[in-house]
Write a structure and sequence with these properties.
2 copies of one chain form a homodimer. Chain A is an all-alpha fold. Chain A is about 80% helix and about 0% strand. In chain A, helix 5 packs antiparallel against helix 8, helix 9 packs parallel to helix 11 and helix 12 packs antiparallel against helix 13. The N terminus and C terminus of chain A are likely disordered.
Chain lengths: ~450, ~450
Amino acid sequence: MAAVTSNQEKAGPSICGYHFQWLALLAKSLLELARQAKKLGEDDPRRIINSLKAGLSIILVSLFYYVEPLYSSFGVNTTSAVMTAVVIFEFSVGATLGKGVNKMLATLGAGALGLGVHRLATLSGKTGEPVVIDLFVFAIAAMATFARIFPRLKAKCDYGLMIFILTFSLVSVSSYREENIQKMALERLLTITVGCFITILVNICICPVWIGEDLHNLVALNIEKLGIFLQGFGGEYFEMYEEGLPSKDRSFLQGYKSVFNTQSREENMANLARWEPGHGRFRFRHPWEQYLTIGSLTRQCAIKIDVLNNYIDRQIQPSLEIPSQVKEHCTMISLECGKALKELSSSIRMMIRAETTLLHIGNSKIAAENLKSLFISGLWKEADPLERAPATAVASLLLEVIQCTERISNAVQELASLAGFQNMESSRSLEQQQESNQRIYSINLQNHEITIGE
Amino acid sequence: MAAVTSNQEKAGPSICGYHFQWLALLAKSLLELARQAKKLGEDDPRRIINSLKAGLSIILVSLFYYVEPLYSSFGVNTTSAVMTAVVIFEFSVGATLGKGVNKMLATLGAGALGLGVHRLATLSGKTGEPVVIDLFVFAIAAMATFARIFPRLKAKCDYGLMIFILTFSLVSVSSYREENIQKMALERLLTITVGCFITILVNICICPVWIGEDLHNLVALNIEKLGIFLQGFGGEYFEMYEEGLPSKDRSFLQGYKSVFNTQSREENMANLARWEPGHGRFRFRHPWEQYLTIGSLTRQCAIKIDVLNNYIDRQIQPSLEIPSQVKEHCTMISLECGKALKELSSSIRMMIRAETTLLHIGNSKIAAENLKSLFISGLWKEADPLERAPATAVASLLLEVIQCTERISNAVQELASLAGFQNMESSRSLEQQQESNQRIYSINLQNHEITIGE
């Protein structure tokens, strides 16, 4: 008996402990979740607003179900408006508009085709009808599924093709039992259109997220990251620090690495941005394609920079024998290319034509020529070739970076002329003109007052 | 009059010509479409089969609508089975299974929650009911929309969260007017489950496309592309062609470029592959994560190779002064690394442990040591440093390629032990054992016959 009690005593605390452990684990993971949610919200507060907008658009659409006169005019199909609101609501205006337009057009087209097939199928009697319908459903579903792999269709109307198959199958199959299939198809089209419009309105009118603007900023940020690296590289590698740069904090040199993984994101963003109407500084047919060109040139430059970075990472510091002139020229190339890239980045961001980029590229080219003539002068012949190898490799890579910078500069200039970036002066003179207009206006106003006063 | 006739005559052919031009343009673009479709089909014939499978699964599900006893047990909700079949059918088994399981679980959870909210809302009377329902719909839709941005949830159950919002909104909102909401929710769950099962069965049973196998082959192919480049590079750069390699066809050196753009595709494939059941050589919990590690190391190596390729592209051929020993060692490093990578690739493809990879890497390391001591010996001191720069850069890059190859080799070996790749010998001995078993079996059979004969 005593043994049993002691066994129970032993078991008691251990089960309690087990439960306690389990609860503690649950509380810990809930806390972790909350912490993560807070971080995600802080990283991009638009996400929180977006969630509230999604809830709001569903509620607005659901009013059609609750309010009597609206409900009776749309019928049971009102639920498909709710489904539409859930499915097409996306983070950005471009994605929501793209899905909405796809959904409406596909529903219209597939509904009409479904009605046509129904008319054809009724000719073959009640027994033959499902066979004819299924033959058409099979053929059209198979063809539309195949169409979804065409690269151009996949990028622009993958969702529309799916909705096309869905609506066509639904209308065709339902037509077998539904008495008034035309009324049903029309009601469906109407409710979906209403659902789309409400969702798109909520998405555009309340704190809209323009994906085109995000693409614009992403491309500018990527170029800036390369610029930051290059401005720091020379000093870091040859230990000739410019004033103001921290000597051992190398984290600023790692920013460029994220540039490698943005290609598919950029392509997706450019596809969606085409749907967006003109807004702010962007007109309807903004040259989004050109951002992809700039992005791909940026990644090519990032590859060179990654190799340069290896020379810092692996601590292959050149020996002290490197002539100070070589150091100077290399640092100059890196610094000037960095300045050029940073100016290009802010030129994109502010949509103003870059002015001193060509000057910076010119400076780096002069440094490159000086570097080449230094090498030709045989200044370095007595040094150990192996010790010299990393430094010559770095020099040769820097020459390639100049080419990359020039290519990015050309692409940004093309963007500037396609998108009509303003000149720094013209933007200044515009400001001045506005100011002087303001002055003339206020003078006129005074005159007018004087006239009235008289 | 004559003038009018001549005008008509003039107008006649030009309108005809316009129509004719238009028709010709249409015919041309249709032909172009057919040509493109043929090419897409030939590139991957599985796409054609996939389209037919999609049509078939919709037809099979539609039978539930046509056949009387099935229809009466499922009711009007049968159309949602058709919608399910359209929406969850995807190219690969992993994607279809993932969507199907997400859809079924989300419908179950959201339906149950919707019924609970309905019960709660009825407590507040007919006027208060829609307000209570909408409060819940708003809160839950907003929370679920926010949850979709958590990276882990986004990768695994983004679709499930959308279906959760959809079903919950649908059940909650419908409960305001629907008399028997429990029956409706249950029927919906049932039809969706039936739709999912039929679609998944069609997808798995008829020519299944396993996305895990595609990932496996993609990773192996990418490594092979690097191997092909490295095997050809030495000969191409130093113009010391091995026997059998074509001298001026450099297209084989460009294959590696596609390696850069596969990261997001690989990640997506690994996410979907986790849903797939064991099949062929892959068991259920195959280490798909490890393929991502190998893929990322492959891309790091491709960056070095891209820089090497620049030296071929830009025709920076080294002058003839390069000592033949340097050429030999560089070519040896490149060739041996290429062989190692190609062996690793076929080791993955055949799921057999690589045997001679370490030997090849060892050879390239010996060549690297020889190259280093050549440089130290000062063999090259009298040459012009600028002419030497490209060659020293190439040599230095090749040393980095050895490190990359070794890292890939380690990652593949880890994959081999995680996934239980067989040894070449054990696989051979297994074959031999099977052969000898066969022999013993036939001898036994002969003995048996003899016994019977006796």
